[in-house]
Amino acid sequence: MGKKKNKAEDKPSAKKPEGHEDPPEAPPNAGGAESGQTAEGAYRAAAVVFFTRTDGGAVAKVLVAVEERKVKASFLGLEEKGKVAERLVVFPMGRKEKKDKNDPVETAKREYIEETLDYGSLARYLDFADFDGGGDIEASRLAPGSTVPMTWSGADNMALYFSPAGLTVLFCEVPAQEADEPGHEPPAKKQRQEATAAELLSKPKPSPSYHVGKVGHLHSVWLDAESLRTVALSKDKAPKLSLEGQDCRFFPTSASVLRLPEARKWLGVTPSS
């Protein structure tokens, strides 16, 4: 999966076919999962995990999102019956659509823009990131206060495939200063988000059977990598964590992704941890 070139004509749309569903969830007893690269056309959904590094190259912060959902209690590993309402921590993700042309980068980018209104204007980094791994982590460091080059691509990005959900997950590095801003978007970026929402909602329907899906429904939060290491090591199906002073649970599919061998290595979690 090579570098993506910026294509002005590939503008994302929020139109989803009638009957659109959330990304596929891993079966309750999926157990282990294959990981690594897969044929691009074989994936059913894609997610993006934006992250920053410390000066030493370790993962520092990871962008997650919070969404209130009603899900089956059994899916979260709870003993209750029926559905429960929970604040779930997820990675922005969604099913591929025909317009994505079997390209998981396009799917992940479109879903990120639709679900977060391009929080932090981070979607642009997907245009130049190389998900085949490699790259000089030290050489990609930016001096404090320096301007980020338009074609900055980070280093050692990766794409993993979580087979039980048919999910390709893109781990995309962004400059450390992207996570240095306060928990709310600055005015300029907030205005861009509002403009993005208006654009997505105003696009004409391609047919009467289409309806406009939800846009901007995820609340994005930068999380210290240590919290994700705790999730990766937890044996709970939907580990609990506190986020912005509120109790949440990590979405089981996202938690399973963090437990893949490559993701554990990325987080610096050793088998004996």
Task: Write a concise synopsis of the structure shown.
The chain is α+β, with helices and mostly antiparallel strands and 273 residues long. The chain has 5 helices and 11 strands, in the order E-E-E-E-E-H-E-E-H-E-E-H-E-E-H-H. The two termini are 31 Å apart.
Topology:
Layout: E1 15-17, E2 45-53, E3 59-72, E4 83-90, E5 93-95, H1 104-116, E6 158-162, E7 167-173, H2 187-202, E8 210-212, E9 219-224, H3 225-233, E10 240-243, E11 246-250, H4 252-258, H5 261-267
Parallel strand pairs: 2-7, 4-11
Antiparallel strand pairs: 1-8, 2-3, 2-5, 3-4, 3-9, 6-7, 10-11
Total domains, how many?
Answer: 1
Global morphology:
globular
Strand content: 15-25%
Poorly predicted tracts of residues: 5-21, 27-35
CATH topology: Nucleoside Triphosphate Pyrophosphohydrolase
Question: What is the CATH-assigned architecture?
Answer: Alpha-Beta Complex
CATH top level class name: Alpha Beta
User: Main β-sheet, in a few words?
Assistant: 9 strands, mixed
Structural class: alpha+beta
Write down the secondary-structure element order.
EEEEEHEEHEEHEEHH
Query: What is the gyration radius calculated from CA atoms?
Result: 18 Å
Number of E-state strands:
11
- Specify the CATH homologous superfamily: Nucleoside Triphosphate Pyrophosphohydrolase
Mean pLDDT: 80
Distance between the termini: 31 Å
Count of alpha and pi helical runs: 5
Estimate the helix proportion, in percent: 10-25%
